[in-house]
Amino acid sequence: MAAKNHAAAAQRPARPAVVNREAAGLAIPDFDRLIHERIRLGIISALAANSSLTFNDLKKLLKTTDGNLSVHARKLEEAKYILCSKSFEGRMPRTEYTLAPAGRKAFEKYLDHMEALIQAMGR
Fold first, then answer.
1. How far apart are alpha carbons 55 and 47 in whole angstroms?
2. What is the pTM of this model?
3. pLDDT tens digits for 40-57?
4. Total structural domains within the chain
């Protein structure tokens, strides 16, 4: 049995050596983990491109559920990255989101980090 395991291990490709990126001159940017998550990045990106969007607009655009969007939007609200206003159109509730100045600044910093990473990988 041990011979079979040893033979199987010998056939697996070797794992690449762990590289200390800082020592190799490949500084990894410190990403804003709050924005980096896919749905939250989608919310921030969509709001950066639009003056405001409703909850339903974002839900359709991001192809997500009410609960998922609600949880992620709330995290961005708590960080003061987006602003939420609630109103009624007739008897129907309307939730509208806009990008806050802190959110725009965080998104621009995130994009700068991504650009730096892309340039570093192009070496």
1. 11
2. 0.74
3. 999 999 999 999 999 999
4. 1
